[in-house]
Amino acid sequence: MRSTYRSIGFAAAASLLPFISMAAPNSVTYAHTEDEKLTTQQEQVVDLLKAIETGAAKPVAVVNPDKYTQHNLGIADGLAGLGAALAALPAGSAKVNTVRVFQDGDYVFAHTDYNFFGPKIGFDIFRFENGKIVEHWDNLQETPTSANPSGNTMIDGPTEPTNQTKTEENKALVRSFVDDILVNGRMEKLNGYFNGDNYIQHNPQIGNGLSGLGAALEAMAKQGVTMKYDTIHKVLGEGNFVLTVSEGTFAGKPTSFYDLFRVEDGKIAEHWDTIETVPAKADWKNQNGKFGF
């Protein structure tokens, strides 16, 4: 049986997410502790995302106006495409709270609570080149109206990376997990990736632990819901946090899966995710594809 373990993300949302605004500058905040030190590029990403809400113009300078590849398929390429998407946003409606931000080489990836044409949770990935943002990917899901069976939301939990020296080790562990369990369904290996039933789950449909997972899988099977991972497109990490970007199908529709894992003592300890339906190619506003890493 292939791809039986999977965070079951119902109500996947395919929606727009622009990243610039041209109004006057405003202050920018980020939900991190005073002890957390962000890199310059992390700060630039947080400020750029917050500009969706504040209308700040200064953060937009980090985007390369001559080379900006957009992978959100609802937005046209370049700054002109971003501006056009913003024009459809009702004034004063946007809210942006970036909860987590990490960096892996030239890539900065963020986990954000949005109100953008309605409440959404999103992951964003930005690629820097020569100090400027030149490429962007994202994945958005409608925010559920209640916590999951264990009382967890899609964004709560630890935010700061630790064990920076183990980044590559943790990335390898998570890649193996996704490949073994989600892509190839090697369920005999499942227990080896976890510390017993100690597993915190933020998917809105699944409770904590492998026991919570089992209950969710049973419910999914009864509903006839099918899900399949086919390809791992990217693995990014900082310390004990690892993000995977995968492609597959959910309920028969082409789907993008973004999964964020926290690793503890060589085991997977916590999980957040979003899933988004990939629109039909006829509806794309750019031809860069959802993935293209």
UniProtKB/TrEMBL annotation:
Species this chain originates from: Sinorhizobium americanum
Gene3D superfamilies referenced in this protein's UniProt entry, alphabetically: 3.10.450.50
Domain of life: Bacteria
Coiled coil: none
Protein name listed in UniProt: SnoaL-like domain-containing protein
Keywords annotated in UniProt: Plasmid, Signal
Polar residues: bias regions: 141-153
UniProt region (Disordered), positions on chain: 141-167
One BP annotation, GO: polyketide metabolic process
Signal peptide (from-to): 1-23
Domain SnoaL-like residue range list: 174-271
